[in-house]
Predict the 3D structure of the following.
Amino acid sequence: MMNKLTIKDLDLDGRRVLTRVDYNVPLHEGAITDDHRIRQTLPTLRAILDGGGIAVLMSHLGRPKGQVDDALRLTPVAARLAELLERPVKKLDVVIGPAAEAAVQSAQPGDVILLENLRFEPGETACDDAFVAQLTALGERYVNDAFGAAHRAHASIVGPPRTLPAAAGLLMEKEIEYFSRLLASPDHPYVAILGGAKVSDKIPVIENLLDKVDRILIGGAMAYTFLAARGEEVGASRVESDRLDLARQTLAQAEAAGVAFDLPSDHVVAADFAEGSTPSVVAGAIPADRMGLDIGPATAERYAAAIGEAKTVIWNGPMGVFEWEAFRSGTEAVARALATNPGTTVVGGGDSAAAIRLLGLDDQVRHVSTGGGASLEMLEGKQLPGLEALNDRASR
C-alpha cells in the first residue's frame, strides 16, 4: 500500500516545505485539552528542520465553514507546538495572500511558520483552483502528515501534490504501515472489536474484514440492533429499526465466512440516558423500561479472554457510554486486555483513542491512530484521497 514517496526521499535543504498537519485538537475555553495529534507530528517536523528545511505548516480546526471565527484560531496550537519543539513558531493570522507570501519568503532554514485555520477560507473545502494555486505558491516541497484528514479531498490535501514534489510524513507512513498490516498481512488469531452507536457506520468495515479476521466482538449501542435482529428483547435500548434486515444479512454473512460474531450476553442498564442514572446488570432479556449503556461483566470477561488469545487486534468504537464512569467498565476491560496483549494492537482513532487515553493506557498498545474517519475508511478498504495524491515511488 505504501508505494509513495516519504519525507526521507525529498531534498529539503533550504526549501520551503508546505506541510499538512492535523491539529484539529479539542479545546475548552481556548485551552487545548488533548495535544496527542500535535505530539505525533514532531518526528516529521524535526526531520524537516534537521534537513535544513523551512516548515510551513497548515491545518484546520473545527468547522468554521469558510468564515473567520476567533474561537477557532490556531493561536493556542502555535503556543503548544513552540513548547513541544522548544523553538519559536511564527503564527500567521492569514492562510494566503501577500502577508503569508512575505512571511514565507523571508523565512530562514530552521524556521517554523503556522498558517491560520485553513477552513477560514471557503476554497479549502471547495478545493477551489485559485485557492490551491495561492496555497501551493507558499512551498517548494509538499509533505502530508495529516492522516486524520487524508480521507477528505480538500484543497490542502490534494491540491499542492499536483505541482510540487509530494511525500508522506513519518506519521502518515506509520499509520499506513499499521493499517496495511491489518488488511494485507495480519497474524492469526485476528480479532476485531467494533463498538459505537450506529450499525450503519460499521457494516462496510465488517464486510471488508470478514475474509481477514477470525472473530468480531460487538459492543456499544450498535450491539442492540444486532440483538434485536436476532429476536432478543433489548428494552428501551437504542435500535436502528431501519437497519434490522441489514444486521440479519451481516450475521448470516459472518456465519457463512466462518467468523465468530460475538454479541453481549449481559448488559449494564439504566432507566434513563443520563450520567446520574443508577446502573444495574441484567443477563439476557433487557426489561422494557431499561436501556443498555455498556456491556456487562460476563461479556467483558469473555471479550478480554478473546483479546488475550489474539495475535492481531483492531479496536474501533467504545463498548458503552465510557464518558460516564458508571458505564465505562466494559470499555475499560477491552482497553486493559489490549494493553497486555504483546501482539499487533491497533486502536482506530476517534472515540476509542479518546477512551484509551482517558484510561492512561495509550502508551501500552502498539498503535493509537490519529484518524477517526480516515481509519474507518481504511478498514472499509477505501482509497484515501490524501494518500492517492502523493507521488509514487517510481515516478520521480
